[in-house]
Design brief:
Elements lengths: L9 H34 L4 H23 L6 H28 L7 H26 L15 H23 L2 H4 L1
Helix pairs in contact: 1-2, 2-3, 3-4, 3-5, 4-5
Protein name: DNA damage-regulated autophagy modulator protein 1
Membrane topology: Multi-pass membrane protein
Keywords: Membrane, Transmembrane, Transmembrane helix
Length: 182
């Protein structure tokens, strides 16, 4: 995932797009927070502090995305990796909390189908997050232009697959908010 943004000029475009995505994530999460607060006024399905906690976790994930975009993998690998861990870790916790909130609001504010979809995406993302960390921790060098057969290639390849799985999980999860936001 991060290999996309390791060399100029792609790195500038990648960083810019990651920052735009983080901003859109913040906006989406805040709208979702406000929506749940409004629904909760009449239904009282969760404590307001739970909704606020979920928002804060989500904002941490967006901050992690900003760190990933700002500190490139080859230039400052430790800071980049910490940002990625915060982004993906917080993101997985956020979508899991939002899935739980969705179930709590059923059937008045959500359908069970949407809740099941959200939870399925959350579970897949959680499952992919763990091997992503395990495989990434086994990589002994930071480089670009990997070739099959070289040392740590398999770890890099498997970590990248899991990273993309989690990233697309976030995208698909946010798409489930479309109906709620109408």
């Amino acid at each position: 995932f991060s290999d996309t943004g390791t060399k100029p000029p792609e790195s500038g475009i990648f960083g810019f797009m990651i920052n735009i995505s983080a901003l859109l994530g913040v906006i989406t999460m805040y709208i979702r927070y406000l929506l749940v607060e409004k629904q909760n006024e009449s239904s009282h399905f969760i404590r307001s502090s739970c909704n606020m906690f979920s928002l804060c976790i989500g904002l941490m994930g967006c901050t992690g995305m900003g760190i990933v975009a700002t500190f490139q993998e080859l230039s400052v690998p430790t800071v980049h990796d910490i940002g990625a861990l915060v982004a993906f870790g917080s993101g997985v916790v956020y979508i899991t909390l939002q899935s739980i909130i969705s179930y709590k609001s059923c059937p008045q504010w959500n359908t069970y189908f949407v809740c099941h979809m959200r939870m399925a995406i959350s579970v897949i993302s959680c499952i992919a997050f763990i091997p992503m960390i395990v495989f990434a921790s086994q990589i002994s060098m930071t480089k670009i232009d990997w070739t099959p057969g070289e040392k740590d290639y398999t770890f890099h390849f498997m970590s990248a697959i899991c990273e993309w799985t989690v990233a697309f999980g976030f995208i698909f999860f946010f798409l489930t908010f479309i109906r709620d936001f109408q």
